[in-house]
Amino acid sequence: DVEKMSPVGVDEEFDLGGVNHLALVCSDMKRTVEFYTQVLGMRLIKTLDLPNGQGQHFFFDMGGGNALAFFWFPDAPDGVPGVSAPVTVPGIGEWTSAVGSMNHIAFNVPEERFLEYRAKLEAKGIRVSPIMDHDDSEFGVARELHPGVFVRSFYFQDPDGLLLEFACWRRAMGQPGDVSHEPKTAADRTGVPV
Fold it and tell me: Which residues, 6 or more positions from 184, have their beta carbon under 8 angstroms from its beta carbon?
């Protein structure tokens, strides 16, 4: 439901229509294509060989007019778990990543199919996290589903360790009280010289 995802108000600076595409880097394009088409059921919609043997760039339809793209570079350095992407998934282990990294991709799924989708991934041999019912409690995750849970989710990883999430909004964001925290600064970081 688009209305659930849209915050209250309209962006008058730019007429943004969501994500055109998100471009990531993979180590093995064939394995990436197999995972995103066979495991997640995305349709491969465009493939490109980059000029002068620089690599490949493939695009998948991830729904809602948005695309997920991957680059494959023959000379790309390996990812570093805990730096370029989380080591594992929330609820199972360490999920911090470095400044400037992409921590995870959350795919919007219908709430009525949320549990079915989790079971499907498990049946395909994908390790999934426990279900996280995100709320405004001290730890940000409820012990049980209640009306204050604003999004339900679970996490898993792709073959390169990219952290993925299936999430379903339970109410519209941008309501009174949703934006109530003072943003932290670089000076608030621990153990990092500023």
Answer: none
Please report the sign of the dihedral spanned by the C-alpha atoms of residue 115, residue 120, residue 125, residue 126.
Answer: negative
End-to-end C-alpha distance for the chain, whole angstroms = 42
> Which DSSP state fits 38?
I
Sole residue written with tokens 């991709």: 105
pLDDT mean by block of 10 residues, the chain; 194 residues: 50 80 95 97 96 95 93 93 86 83 92 96 96 88 88 95 94 83 83 63
The angle subtended at Cα 63 by Cα 57 and Cα 65, nearest 5°, is: 75
The pLDDT value recorded for residue 38 is 97
Q: Where are the beta strands (DSSP E) in the chain?
A: 21-26, 43-50, 55-61, 67-72, 105-108, 132-134, 151-157, 163-169
Q: Which pTM does this prediction carry?
A: 0.85
Q: Where are the alpha helices (DSSP H) in the chain?
A: 2-5, 29-34, 114-123
CA 98 to chain centre: 16
Please tell me the predicted confidence (pLDDT) of residue 96: 86
Cβ atoms of residues 82 and 60 within 8 Å: no
Contacts of 60 (CB under 8 A, 6+ apart): 36, 37, 42, 43, 44, 45, 67, 68, 69, 70
Q: For residue 186, give Cα distances in angstroms to 99, 181, 191.
A: 11, 16, 11
